[in-house]
């Protein structure tokens, strides 16, 4: 993975000092909260319902064990012993003191981490496929490009006061695990027919109150043109994006209102001036950044095949876990292991300091010191020999980290909701917990198969409800919490926005409603081979609506 | 009280006044500037964020100063206007930030090509007068300011030392 050089270290240290100065000026009253707000946001500091919240960047979701131990230390020292992994591959601390923030940032800097641009109307932490550099199906590792974008976008003088936040995601496989079509810019690394690397470029995706999927503006942008092209997009957006209404300020609205063809013409015209300038990436620099992401030297471990088969026969729990949580690696003797942060009845994405320390240790022992954070709020050990899966599983069991539910109905994405968030209208976490408990039986989950439930506690959609196979949106109606259901959303290469079923459900009805939907699917599906989303796309919303609102229809 | 600051310090007797002011040489809004350009005298322009800076291209050599407006600190359009004026149109004259100019934005403004600042906030004036700017001298991207190529990668820059 990327290692800081002297320049990076000096930059992050200067940034910490800069923030310390800003906090001092705020505490002395020299700057108002209004003026301080964008400054603290650009360092990841939010003011939440009960306390300040700090969001630490995990660039493209990649961590080593030393960094994970530091995250555990911060949870223990400055927070209440836990942290919350987010849908943007970051980690949030919910209870730190403002006066401790500079010190926390200094501790992070020691392990080459920061909280730069994890919030604010600027280019946010760049995300990537959590299986990058290990997945069997990628054309190349997308993370070097995410790192180049991370550097280029850090404290960008022109693009720090954009109309609204700006999110970039990079993937390098046909199978989209980074949800690029829901980002302001989505980049898919690919090869052209000459074998050269470049990007399909998508712009204008986003969720929030107006969910829109991104539009493709380039089928193949040569890799050398990455920064100049992104600059052209950013400049057109900065000059022309709406600033009169924060809910219409994302680039998706500019794309929608201007029209993708006209906007693309403007971007290309701007790019024509930039493409041969200082931002053209030299091959040597791309190669130098790539060198940091050289895959670890993975020795052959063919013995794992036989051992794995024997272990699976003797322990059905282990077999289930391998079946759900281990995915194919580039090296046939290895697997990519998802560590579920969705224990049955637990809070999605939360991990205790002890669990973080355990993951750090296991990454050293079994995964060449590498850990990933996924946008689905789980962790990944990307390079585990099949021969090591059994001892790894035993160790995870002890830590409460061996839940075999990756991609199943209890692998729920949920935002922090009204338990923490100042924007929320309704709670998300208790809804996730109750659904998880209802469907917690392993046999029942397995029978249901792949199903993504995503829960947001308000229209800002941090819980990605628009792209959940089943999406749940918490709203407030006459002072009470109400949950709207949408069906048919998806965030992968066949992305789609879910459709609302009808009137919402109260907190005591929502889990029953989800069960009704699941039962309808089980009745309607052709066979267990037909997943929920495939079945929904075949039969449409009507059978689900009929089941959900049957009693109303009878009453009428 | 509003003062004008440049990297050389606070400017005494600045001649340029905002439209509507009683004294000094007026900064002209874009439409008036294009009209005025038929005369021969040099003049100053004040642009709003929605103005297209490229309209000035034909008359740029006659412009003595361009003021770009930050109606609120959150409105960052003038950063791109400044980049276009410096990099695209090659404007080399004075470029002033007016409106809401916050201390923490001044380093970014300097990077995008601003070289004078109209400031009203007393603690900000004090910091600027003391030349205690809250900026970072290491940059991950080229901009309009004069910098050295940074170490390592083509996109990096380091600030020129003051002096």
UniProtKB/TrEMBL annotation, chain A:
Coiled-coil region(s): none
Superkingdom per UniProt: Bacteria
Xref: Pfam families: NIR_SIR (PF01077), NIR_SIR_ferr (PF03460)
Nitrite/Sulfite reductase ferredoxin-like domain: residues covered: 52-111, 330-396
Residue ranges of domain Nitrite/sulphite reductase 4Fe-4S in the record: 119-273, 410-548
Alphabetical UniProt keywords: 4Fe-4S, Heme, Iron, Iron-sulfur, Metal-binding, Oxidoreductase
GO terms of molecular function: 4 iron, 4 sulfur cluster binding; heme binding; metal ion binding; oxidoreductase activity
Gene3D superfamilies documented for this protein: Sulfite Reductase Hemoprotein, domain 1, Sulfite Reductase Hemoprotein,Domain 2
Name the UniProt record assigns to this protein: Sulfite reductase (NADPH) hemoprotein beta-component
Higher taxonomy: Bacteria, Pseudomonadati, Pseudomonadota, Alphaproteobacteria, Hyphomicrobiales
UniProtKB/TrEMBL annotation, chain B:
UniProt superkingdom: Bacteria
InterPro entries, alphabetized: UCP030820 (IPR008318)
Name the UniProt record assigns to this protein: Oxidoreductase
Organism of origin: Hoeflea halophila
